[in-house]
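writing this on my phone so excuse typos. first protein, seq and then structure
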Amino acid sequence: MEKDNKLDNLDSEIRKRLNKTIEKREPSVKQTKTDVTVMSDNTYAQGKIVRLPSSSDTQDVGMINRWRARQLESNNNLEAAKVIFDTELAQLKHQAEAAVLESKTFWTGKSAEITELIKNYLQDALGNIEISRMETTNRLLKKATEQATRQLIEIQSSDLPQVMKDLLTDDIVKGLENTKDRIRSNELGKKYSLD
C-alpha cells in the first residue's frame, strides 16, 4: 500500500508541475470557477470551469458584435425608412387622386355652368333674331300691302275702261300674293345668301 500511496503522490506531483508549466506558457489562459461566465461565442456556462478569452480575442469578438449590431440597426433603420417612404408615397398618391377628382368635379360643374350660360345666350340671341326677322317680315308685308293698295286706288280712280281696271287689279293682287309668299318663305334671303 505504501507503494500505491507513493505512486499516487508522484502522480499528483507530476500533475501539479504539468499545470504550472502550462500556466507559464499560456499566461492569458486561466482556470477559474464562476457562477456565470461569458464565452467567446456568446454562450453562457454556469458553475463550470471555462477558458476565458484573452484581451485580443475579446476585442475581436467585440468588434464583430458591434459590426453585427450596427448592421442590424442599419437594416432596421432601412426597413423603418422603407415603411415610412411607402406610407408617404401612398398618402401622396391618395392626395393626388383626391386632387384630380376634385379638379374633375370642379371643371365638370364649370363646364355645365358655362354650357348653360351659352345655351341661354344663344336662345336669347336666336329669339332676338327671330323677333327682328318677324318685325322685318311684317314691315315688308305691310309695305307691300300699302303699295298694292295705292296702286289699286290709282287704277280705280283712273279713266281706264273697266275691263282694263279688272285685269290690272287681278295682276296687282297676284303680284301682292307672290311678294307676300316670297317674304314669308325668305326667298330673298336665300337668293342673296343672307341665311
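second protein below, same order as before
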Amino acid sequence: MILSRQTHAFHTADPTADEEHIIYRAPKGCGRVTLTNASAALSAAIASDASNWISLRISKVGDDGAETPVNVTALLGGANTAWVDNTPVDFTITTAADANVLVEGEYLKLTYDENGTVAPDTVSVFLETAIGKVN
C-alpha cells in the first residue's frame, strides 16, 4: 500500500576526486520506502572522454551505516560519457531482490567517482520515493 510519494533533492558543490554522501534516510515508523526513480544533473557540461570523467552510484546501507552497501542503481556516467549542463539523466534502478526497498532507518548513499581532471561544478541528485513497497 502506498501512503505517499515524495521527491528529495541533494546537491554538492564542486566535489573532489572521490566522495561519498548519505543522501536519504528511510523514516522511523514508516515500515518500508521504495526508491521509484532517481536522476542526476551537473551544472557544468562534461565532454565525452576516455580519461577525464565522473560516475555516480546510489547504494543502501544499514541503519548503523556499517552494513555492506547494496547497489540500488547501475553506474551512471563513466568513461566516454558526456554530460549536458543542467540536464537530468535517469539512473537505472535495481529492483531485483528488493534492492530499491529500504526498511525504516536504512540510508541511501551517493558515491561520486572522478577520474582525471573534470569540473562538474554542482552535482544534483533527485530521488523519488514512495512510502510502502511498490514493486
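DSSP finds no helices and ten strands in the chain. thats all i got for now
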